[in-house]
Design goal:
By secondary structure, the protein is mainly α. It has 20 helices and 4 strands.
C-alpha cells in the first residue's frame, strides 16, 4: 500500500505540472502563468523548471529523505515539477509524464543515495549550486505588489507599499527569532515572505478598491482574478485526489511537508509534528493564496493543511477523506476571495499591471539567481558568462526570453565547467 501511495502521488503530480494546473515550487507558479499566456515557450519553461528545482531536489530534498527515511515532500514534488514541465503537453506527453512521475516516486521510496553519489563523481558537481537559481524568486516576489502599485497609481504609493512590505517582513523575522508565538512546546514560525506579500497585496487592493466605478467603466472584461481562480476551481477533482493521497501517505508516516515535522516524526513525536505542520501552514497561506489568485496555477499541496490532516487522523482512510475535503474547501475559499475582489471595478484594471510587475520581477530575480549559481559553479567565469550571455541575447533581438537567460545560462556554465576541467583548462572550484 505504501508503494501504491507514493507511485500515485508521483504520477498525478507530474500530470498536474504537465497540464499547467499545479506546481510545487512557489517561484515556478508565475512562470507557468507566463507560458499559459503565450509569452514563454515550453522548452524554456522546462529548462527554467530544471534550473530552479533540480538543485533543491539533490541538495535539499533528498538528503533529508535519506537521513530520516521519510520522504520530504520537496524531494518528490520538485522532481515531478521538472518531469511534468519538461515533457511535452500532448496526447502522448501527458501519459509519459505520469509513467516517469510514478517511477520517480518509486525510486525515491527505494532510495536515491546511489543517484546522489553518481552526480558527486562529476568533476564539477553543479547540481547543488543550481539551487541558487530559484533562491531570489520567492524572496523578491513579495515586491511585485509595490511595483504594480507604482505602475498603476503613483511612484510615491509604490514606494510606500514597498517600505511597509519590507517592514512587515523584518517584523516577521524578529518574531520568529524571538520565539514569541508558542503552542505548547512548539514555536510558531511565520512565513516572512508570505507575510510581506500579503501586506503588499492589501495595499494594492486598497488602492484599487478606492477607484470609483466611473473610472473603470471602460473595462468590460471579467476580472482577471475570477478568471484565474475559475481555472483552479475547474480542476478541483485533481486537487482532491492528490490531497487525499498525500494526507494518506503522511498518516502512514511515509512523508512530511517540512524538515521540522520530518525530524519530529523521525523521533516518534507525531503530535508535535502535527502542531509544527499546522503552524507552518498558517504562515504559508498568504503566499500560496496570493500566487494562486494572481497566476491561476495552484500548489499540489494547497496551503499544506493536508499534512496536518494526515498527522492528526486516527487512520489512513480517514486521512484520505479529510485530505480531500480540506483541499476542496481551500479551492472554494479562493473562489470566494476572487468574487469579493470582483465587486470592485478598480481591481480589474490592476490585472495588466500585476502581470507586468511579475514579469519584470521574475526577469531580474532569475538573472540574479542564474548569475549567483554560475559564479558558485565557476567563480569569476560564471559572472562573465551570464553577463555576456544576457547582453548578446539582447543584441540578437532576444531569441531567448529574458526570464530564461539566467537559468539556461547557469546550466550552460555547469556543462562548460565540466568540459574545461576534463580538458585540464580549469581547476575544480573549491
Amino acid at each position: 500500500m505504501e508503494m501504491i501511495f507514493v507511485i500515485l502521488i508521483g504520477a498525478l503530480a507530474a500530470v498536474l505540472a504537465n497540464m499547467n494546473i499545479a506546481v510545487f515550487n512557489d517561484g515556478l507558479r508565475p512562470i507557468v502563468s507566463e507560458h499559459l499566456e503565450g509569452r514563454l515557450k515550453r522548452r524554456e519553461l522546462g529548462l527554467t523548471a530544471f534550473a530552479m528545482s533540480f538543485g533543491l531536489v539533490v541538495g535539499f530534498g533528498i538528503p533529508f529523505t535519506i537521513t530520516a527515511s521519510i520522504i520530504l515532500i520537496h524531494s518528490i514534488l520538485l522532481g515531478t515539477d521538472i518531469i511534468g514541465l519538461i515533457t511535452p503537453k500532448s496526447k502522448w506527453g501527458t501519459p509519459v509524464a505520469a509513467v516517469i512521475g510514478g517511477l520517480y516516486g518509486w525510486g525515491l521510496l527505494i532510495g536515491l543515495e546511489g543517484f546522489v553519489k553518481l552526480f558527486e563523481h562529476l568533476p564539477v558537481n553543479f547540481l547543488e549550486p543550481m539551487g541558487e537559481v530559484g533562491t531570489p524568486v520567492v524572496v523578491t516576489f513579495m515586491a511585485f505588489p509595490a511595483l504594480a502599485v507604482a505602475l498603476q497609481f503613483s511612484l510615491k504609493k509604490g514606494i510606500l507599499t514597498f517600505l511597509v512590505a519590507a517592514l512587515v517582513r523584518q517584523l516577521a523575522v524578529f518574531l520568529n527569532e524571538s520565539g514569541l508565538f508558542v503552542i505548547g512546546e512548539n514555536v510558531i514560525t511565520l512565513n516572512q515572505e508570505g507575510m510581506a506579500l500579503i501586506a503588499g497585496m492589501i495595499f494594492l487592493f486598497s488602492f484599487a478598491m478606492k477607484k470609483k466605478e466611473s473610472e473603470a467603466a471602460t473595462v468590460d472584461l471579467v476580472s482577471i482574478f475570477s478568471d484565474k481562480v475559475s481555472s483552479i476551481k475547474k480542476n478541483v477533482v485533481f486537487f482532491m485526489l492528490i490531497g487525499a493521497l498525500i494526507a494518506g501517505a503522511t498518516n502512514l508516516l511515509l512523508m512530511a511537508g517540512d524538515p521540522i515535522s520530518l525530524n519530529l516524526l523521525a523521533e516518534g513525536k507525531q503530535t508535535d509534528a502535527g502542531i509544527a505542520a499546522a503552524a507552518r501552514a498558517i504562515g504559508f497561506i498568504p503566499l500560496v493564496a496570493s500566487t494562486a489568485i494572481a497566476t491561476g496555477v495552484y500548489s499540489p499541496v494547497g496551503f499544506t493543511l493536508i499534512f496536518v490532516a494526515g498527522l492528526f487522523s486516527p487512520n489512513v482512510w480517514i486521512a484520505v477523506l479529510v485530505g480531500a475535503i480540506v483541499i476542496f474547501l481551500e479551492v472554494m475559499l479562493l473562489n470566494s476571495i476572487a468574487k469579493f475582489l470582483d465587486k470592485y471595478p478598480g481591481v480589474r484594471n490592476s490585472g495588466e499591471n500585476i502581470r507586468s510587475a511579475m514579469t519584470k520581477l521574475l526577469e531580474v530575480a532569475l538573472l540574479i539567481g542564474g548569475a549567483n549559481a554560475s559564479n558558485m559553479i565557476a567563480p569569476g567565469f560564471g559572472f562573465f558568462f551570464i553577463a555576456g550571455f544576457y547582453l548578446l541575447n539582447e543584441a540578437a533581438g532576444r531569441p531567448i526570453v529574458r526570464m530564461a537567460v539566467g537559468p539556461v545560462g547557469a546550466i550552460a556554465v555547469g556543462v562548460i565547467a565540466n568540459i574545461l576541467v576534463l580538458l585540464g583548462v580549469m581547476s575544480i572550484p573549491q
